[in-house]
Amino acid sequence: MLPYFLLAIGVAALGIVLCEWKKPRWCNEIFLAVSSLAMVVFASLRDHTVGVDYDYTYAPFFEQVCDGGWQFLISDANGYRVEPGYSLLNYLVSLISHDVRVLMLVIAVLSVTLTAVLLYKYCQIPWLGMTIFILFGFYGNTLSFIRQSIAIAIFLFAIKYLCNKKMWPSIVPYMLIVLLAASFHKSILIMVPMYFIARLAVNWKWLVVYVVAMVLVMCFSWQLFYFVTDTLGLFSHYATLQGLYYMNGRDWNTAVVPVLCGIAAFAGSKLILKRNPNAGPLINLSVYSALLFIMTCQHFLFQRLAMMFFTTTILLIPMLIQCSYPDEEKISLLELRINQSQLSAKAKEKEIFQKTKELRYYYYDFIATALVVGFLYLWWQLSANRIALVPYVTFLQ
């Protein structure tokens, strides 16, 4: 566990020092560059025993690509032929080296760089977004669920178009990004209907509709499962894989943090939307994530969908916390109220300073809360060790 905690502590400490305390001119660029380099090195040095799908899935496929070349990619023997983006990535790396560790280096660079660019462009507190990326397990997923992690990293760039209130001009770039992401993992195609569903209003009426839909799906989950796998013939391998392993339920601990994030997003929706009027779809995705994680307690299969929605917290949680930071409007109202009082000029100045300081304390308290919850969540994930991240060893060992 220690290496993961050291990485998370290092990234969080660097973010606090550079972006909250020192705040140099290029603080976000320096932070993202240094933290990304550390995460790429950490991922690329890991041994083949780190990550449940490394030896089981990805290393054997890369060997097949190296042996079969381009002909293998377009043949029926290619199990990922319907995901040409991932197949092509393996083929391009095979032209450089047949060492699977080179592939893992390229994948680490791709996953982390995409995340860093996303946070730089769209996250309101980039250092916190990157820290959450580690603490909430998204970085750990890039060490195991490689295809889906790359697909999610690509999809997150479509959030910009999802949150655009003008639906039709934005639909083309959104769908193109989704299709590109689906070329690495086809499950991301669930985001096609989400372009319309996530745009629904954020209110109690729709929340009730979502909860009712969740209850109905949970009541008829087996019927729906066999309808999809048997009648429609989709994802039929789930019907036999590991004795219906994916239909087993997870314990309640799995859902705690995603549900808390969904509650926080919905409870703070008015505050978020006041500062970020286009953020409604992002809030809805967090709510969908919470509901899907509740459903995960019945069937693990829902977690594969939930994770795609949950990853948006690297943008939403910083956005929510940033709302607590006193902006110019809050400070102006505070100054106006105090200046109308009967205090002396010196006392007014002192009062304004003190109240502004108190407002900032809320901001830092929320950051501290997010970090504490995140580190507890990381500890739980590593203790459960469901995706074989522990022990972390390097191939040098």
DSSP, total strands:
0
Order of helices and strands: HHHHHHHHHHHHHHHHHHHH
Number of helices: 20
Tell me the major beta sheet.
Answer: none
| Shape label | globular
State the assembly state of the protein chains. single chain
- Termini distance? 17 Å
Gyration radius over CA: 23 Å
Strand content: under 5%
- Label the structural class: mainly alpha
Give the mean pLDDT: 91
Low-confidence stretches: none
Helix content: over 70%
Description:
The protein contains 20 helices and no strands. By secondary structure, the chain is mainly alpha-helical. Helix 16 runs antiparallel to helix 17. The radius of gyration is 23 Å and the shape is globular. The two termini are about 15 Å apart. The mean pLDDT is about 90.
Topology summary:
Layout lengths: L1 H21 L4 H18 L7 H22 L10 H11 L5 H23 L3 H10 L2 H5 L3 H10 L3 H4 L4 H16 L8 H7 L6 H16 L1 H11 L21 H15 L1 H7 L4 H17 L4 H10 L2 H10 L5 H12 L5 H40 L13
